[in-house]
Design brief:
Blueprint (H helix, E strand, L loop, with lengths): L1 H26 L4 E17 L2 E16 L17 H30 L1 E2 L5 E2 L4 H4 L7 E5 L2 E2 L3 H10 L5 E7 L2 E7 L2 E3 L4 E3 L2 E2 L2 H4 E2 L3 H27 L11 H16 L3 H24 L6 H14 L5 H30 L2
Antiparallel strand pairs: 1-2, 3-12, 4-11, 5-6, 5-7, 7-8, 9-10
Helix pairs in contact: 1-2, 1-7, 1-8, 2-6, 2-8, 2-9, 6-8, 7-8
Length: 346
């Protein structure tokens, strides 16, 4: 059951991504030759108008195949024949739809669960926070220049900027105060800490529809920020590539989460899977916008160059760049998958 749930989550998120491309391609007058669910050989399909809708053998994601997307075409309805801004909208629509899906799911989750407000419910004796005068009942609103809306942002900030001094802005009795804190090294945990704690049952708050809509935006911003900071740590060597997870690792994590929450009832299984889906959808949106060859972000770079130069980049050169990008990405995926499989036996 847990593997079926993992496949469904992956499929819905990727299919929604491809739906963004599909709808904006139709809007731009680009012919979509095939829109499919899954990958590999076709199990079932139906031709409706100019598009062949199909279900593939492998239940992973889907694809939107447009006329002239990866090859020259003289058809007036081909991708390359449309204006550069129309093509930009089609390429950008996939990641944007991932953010939209993540936002809708975040709104649903927050409506059920409320939000983990950055309310301080405990301060460790002798900690930097206590020495700076922070007390129980204070609400953190900013760490350096970063606005804080959830307590988990406090923990994540400490992880991404481990050991760095931080200026904390907090509210007490409606008044704002600031404090300069230098994290202290905790030998027991092996981490730098500020000494701030928050109990979910005291800090979690439910709001009305309008506040839930607002916090849905904050939720997406949180996951985008987390993804970008994680990539930064990977790029600077603060995180080892061995800590990366691909589809195999993600499926295992989804399965472990499913097993752990099943004893609490299927409603909590649903909420945990929803939370995981928000993370994955926002993550896919960010990753696809990275300016790397073969990704949507890489294609957008060439389209923006065309918009600035008012002249198309040589299709053969662009195609070669994307081909090299695909080869590199496939190599990375194989390495990550090998690492995921290795972890299963450790």
């Amino acid at each position: 059951m847990k593997f079926i749930i993992a496949i469904l989550i992956f499929s819905v998120i990727i299919l929604f991504h491809e739906l963004g491309h599909f709808l904006f391609a139709k809007r731009a007058g680009i012919r979509v030759n095939e829109f499919c669910m899954g990958l590999g050989p076709t199990l079932f399909g139906v031709q409706k108008g100019e598009t062949f809708y199909s279900i593939k053998l492998l239940p992973f994601g889907g694809a939107c195949m447009m006329e002239g997307e990866d090859a020259d075409s003289s058809d007036d309805a081909s991708f390359g024949k449309k204006s550069v801004w129309a093509r930009i909208s089609v390429v950008a629509a996939g990641p944007v739809f991932n953010f939209i899906l993540a936002y809708v799911m975040a709104f649903v989750l927050i409506s059920f669960m409320g939000v983990d407000t950055p309310l301080i419910t405990s301060v460790t004796n002798g900690s930097p926070a206590q020495e700076a005068g922070i007390k129980e009942g204070d609400v953190i609103v900013k760490m350096n220049r970063k606005p804080i809306h959830f307590f988990r942002e406090v923990s994540m900030y400490g992880m991404f900027y481990e050991g760095d001094p931080v200026k904390i802005t907090y509210e007490r009795d409606g008044q704002r105060h600031t404090a300069e804190l230098t994290p202290a090294y905790n030998e027991k945990t092996g981490r730098y800490v500020l000494g701030l704690g928050s109990r979910s049952e005291l800090a979690r708050k439910k709001g009305n529809v309008l506040s839930n809509l607002k916090y849905g935006v904050y939720e997406i911003k949180y996951w985008i920020w987390t993804t970008l900071q994680s990539l930064k740590m990977l790029g600077t060597g603060k995180v080892s590539p061995n800590e990366m997870s691909g589809p195999v690792g993600i499926v295992k994590t989804i399965g472990d989460t499913y097993e752990a929450s099943r004893s609490d009832g299927y409603f909590y299984v649903f909420l945990n899977m929803l939370n995981f889906s928000i993370l994955l959808s926002a993550n896919l949106g960010v990753m696809n916008l990275l300016p790397l060859p073969a990704l949507d972000g890489g294609r957008l770079v060439f389209l923006l160059l065309e918009a600035v130069r008012r002249k198309k980049v040589d299709p053969e050169k662009e195609g070669m760049v994307h081909f090299v990008g695909i080869v590199i990405l496939m190599g990375i995926m194989v390495l990550v998958m090998f690492n995921d499989i290795r972890k299963l036996f450790i």
